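Help wanted!
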Amino acid sequence: MQNTRSIISINELEVVYNTIYGQVRALNRVSLSVAQGEVYGLVGESGCGKSTLGLSISSLLPTPPARINSGKIFFKDFPITDLSDDELMKIRGTGIFMIFQSPLNSLNPVFRVGDQIAEAIQVRIQRENKHFNLQEVYNYGPIENQGFKSAWNESLKKSRKGLRNWKNSEVISEVLSTLESVRISDPERVANSYPHELSGGMRQRVMIAMALSLRPEFLIADEPTSALDVTTQAQILNNMKSLVEKYSTSILFITHDLAVAANISNRVGVMYAGSIVEEASVYNLFKEPLHPYTVGLLKSFPQGNKRTNKLFSIKGEVPNLASLPPGCPFAPRCSQAKPKCYNDRPQLIEVERNRKVACFLYE
Amino acid sequence: MSVTTFVLRRLFMSIFVLLGVTTLTFIISRVVVPNPARAWIGPKPNPDLLKALMKKYHFDEPLYMQYFYYVIGLFTGDWGVDPYSSIPILTEIRMYFPVTIELTILSSLISILLGIPLGILSATHRGKTWDNAVRLSYLISTSVPIFIVALVLLLLLGYWLKIFPVSGQLSLNVARPPTITGLIMVDALLTGNLNAFIDNLYHMILPSFTLALSSFGIITRLVRSSMIEVLEMEYTKTAKVKGLNKNKIFYKHCLRNALIPTVTIFALLTAYFLGGSLFIENIFSLPGMGRYTTQALLMFNIPAVMGTTFLFALIIIVMNFIADVLYALLDPRIALE
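Answered by r_m:
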C-alpha cells in the first residue's frame, strides 16, 4: 500500500478527557494513516481509546469533557481538526461516515427507516451533482475561513438547483435497491418500518445500507458487529466488504474481536492504553506477533483444537489512563520488561517494511 | 395494535376513571357538609320548609339512593339547581365557563411560546450564561405563589404604570357582543366587532400572562432536559455524520424527539391552569369558573361545587386522553405496546 494516496492520516494525536479524577489521556500521540480502499482493523481491549480515535476522526468527540490537546487529522491532506460544524458538514456523509456500536440507538426512533436512508441518498446526490465540486472547496485550504465558506455556499446553491430535477420516485427505488443489496429480502416492509420494529442485525444492515447510499470515501465502523450473533456478524462483514469493492471505500474497523479483525482487515493496529503498540499486515500480525502485548492478546484467544483447562490471560491489569507511568504502558504486565522499559517510552518504529512496533526489544 | 384500537381502548378506560371521579366527588361533598339544606335555610328554620328542601334535593333518602340520583342526573344533563338563585347548575356553568376557556387557552399559548424556545435556548447553551439566566428565571417564577405574582403584576403594570386594565373583561364604553358561543373574543370576531375583540384581548393579557408566568417553567425544564438528552443520543450523531445541515439535524431529528415528552405535560398544565383560575379570576374580577367555584364553596352551594368539580375532572380526563393519543401519534413506539 505504499504509493497509494492516504485518505486519512493522523499525526501525533493526543486527546484528553477532563474528569473529576483528573485529566485522562485517552489517546497518546497516535499516528496512523489509511490508504484508499484499505481496511484498517483497530483492535484492543475496552477503554484503550479505540472509540475515542473513531470519534475524533468524525469530529464527534463530546467537547467538553474531551479535548484535542495536540496533533492533527488530515482528510485527503486537508486538516480537519480545527473545522467548525458548518465546515465539517460537507466532509461528513460523503467524505467521512461512521457506524456506531449500538444498532438500537443509531437510528432515529420517530422516522421510518426508508426516510432515513433517502435522506442519506439526497445528501449524496446534492454533492455528486456536477455543480458541486468538493475539490473546488478543498483548494481553499488550509483553512482560510472566508474563502472556504463562500466556496461551500456557492457550490451548495448551485447543487440545490440540480436537486429539484431529481425525481422522488428515483430516490425511493434507490432506497429499495440499496436495502436489497445488503441482503434484506423484503425491502418494502423494512423501508416502511420504524427502527424499533426491526431486529438488531436488521438495523445494523440498515446502517450499512445508509453507508452504501452515501458511498463515503472513509468509513469508521465502531464495533459494528459486537452486539450481533455470529451469523449476522458474517453477513454484515460481507456487506462491508462489498462497500470496499464497489466504491473503494477505506474503512477504519474498530473491534475487540481478533477474529473479526482478521476476517475483514488488510492491516491491523493493536492499541494499548491510548497508543498504538503494533501495526502490521493481517497475515504477519497473526503469524508472528512482535509486541509482547500482541503475543499475549493472541494467546488469550481460545483455540478450538487444543484441550486446555484454563484460558490464558495477561497478568496484571490495564493501567489507569489518568496516571500513566512514564515508561512503556505495558511494562508492568510484560514478562520481558527491562529496567529501561519503566523509564523511557518506546516509539512506534518501522522494523520491517510495512511493519511497526513500539517496543525496546526490537530496537 | 393500530392507533384506532389504541384510542378506543384508552377511551374505554376513561369511562371508569370518570365513574371513579363521580364517587369521589359525591363522598367528599357528603363528608364536608352532611346536610347542606340546613346551611342554606339559615338559623332557626321552619321545619316544614327544611323538610321540603331536603326532599327536593333527595337529602332525606339513604346515601346510595342519593348517589344514584346524582349519577343519573349527571348523564341526563340534570346537574342540580342552585339553591340560592334557583337557576340550573348547567346554565350557570354555561355562563361562567367561557371566561375560563379564554384564560386557559391564552395562558397555554403564552406558556408554550415562552417555555419551548427558552428550553431549547437553555439546552443549546448548556452551562453558559443564557442557560443560567433561563434556569434562574423559571426557578423564581415557579417557586413564587401565583397570588403573589398576580398581586405584584397587578400593582406594577395595572396600578402604577397603568399599562393594563386591572379588572373585568371589557372597558365600560365597549358594548358586549351578542352571545353566540359565550367566548367574547370569538363572538366579537363572528359579528365583525374588531373593537370588542381587541378590548377583550387587552383585558385578558395580564391575567393570562400571570398564569403563564408561574407555569412556563414546567415546560422549559422538560424541554431543556429532554433536548439535552436527545442531543447526546447516538441517532443525533448519525444525523450529524450523515452530512445533514444544522437546521435539519436540530429541527427535524432532535426537536421532534425532544418534544414528545412535552406533549404529555399539557394535561398536567390544564389541571394547573384550572387550579390557578381560582386565584386569578378572583384577583382580576373575572366572572369565570374559578370565581364561581370559590363563591359556591364559601356559601356551601353543594350542587354547584359538585358540578364544577365534575367538570374540572372531565376536562382533565379529556386532556389526558388527547395527550395520550398525541403521544401515540408522535412516537411510533407507543401504539404497539
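OP: Thanks! One thing I noticed: Chain B touches chain A through 24 residues (CB under 8 Å).
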